[in-house]
Amino acid sequence: AKQQGRSQYQFYSPEINTQLQERLTLENELHGALERNEMLVYYQPLIDLHSGHITAMEALVRWQHPTLGMISPAKFIPIAEANGAIVQIGEWVLRTACAQNRAWQLAGFTPIRISVNLSARQFEQPYLVEVINQILEETGLQASDLELEVTESFLMGDIERSVKTLKQLRELGIWLALDDFGTGYSSLNYLKRFPVNMLKIDRSFVQDVMSNPDSAAVTNAIIALAKSLRLSITAEGVETQEQLDYLRMQGCDEGQGFYFSCPVPADIIAPMLQKTSQQ
Ligand code: C2E
Ligand code: CA
Ligand code: CA
Ligand code: CA
């Protein structure tokens, strides 16, 4: 009864109304957004904390709305998940990102991985593996130059099926990363069954690793866990030199965050990449 009272109150709240209206607008306009060329892919580098070299780029989608401006994926991905538009958008991001990585290779840059986020709805698609394989063929990118980021929360839905899909992707030669590690269900029992190659420590731990001993303890434990499972470990959300030094000292392999670069369009990435052979 308490909850019902609350939701009735919220129904008349003008603030909630505005939020609802915005959500409805986004939901209605999401379907045509790809056709109208309003989606963009930004890229953020992942850095090897020992050599300082770029090892990968994470593809992050943006929606350039004609009147509302740049819309964050944190806002529209959940809506796209709910109404199914994510399947088409996710496939477009994959194709765009693979084609971009191939274009960087053809331009003579040292090969790096391109890392693409998969959503729950996409992961459940019966033809996911075929679709990905076809995108690799179309774009000419090798499977070993692609990495897919998945989260525990959606792998935990149907574990047998998740393990099977992950294995098929691994067999193609694609790298697999567990994203936002430490936030989801974190069932260590299942972790060893998921054939993933790396863990990405969630930004929330990295953010206050210098000021909060609990976050430092969780970070250290995740790094130790990754080492003992022989998984590579990436820290997300590295913003300061102190965080970088700390993570490097703890044995973290890779880092990503505003300290190195925020996500940017492809043409801004190119000058950051290294030529394979210097003339
Ligand atoms: P994520 O996969 O955890 O991506 C990392 C997010 O952290 C990105 O936000 C990135 O801009 C942000 N970030 C990176 N470094 C820093 C830092 O140093 N400090 C802070 N404060 N933030 C940092 P973004 O681009 O807004 O994406 C948000 C989320 O939306 C992503 O979180 C991911 O879950 C989802 N997403 C983005 N692109 C896609 C996509 O193509 N497909 C799917 N399914 N999800 C996507
Ligand atoms: Ca990610
Ligand atoms: Ca993440
Ligand atoms: Ca996240």
UniProtKB/TrEMBL annotation:
Residue ranges of domain EAL in the record: 23-277
Superkingdom, natural source: Bacteria
Signal peptide (UniProt feature, chain positions): none
Protein name: Bifunctional diguanylate cyclase/phosphodiesterase
Organism of provenance: Nostoc flagelliforme FACHB-838
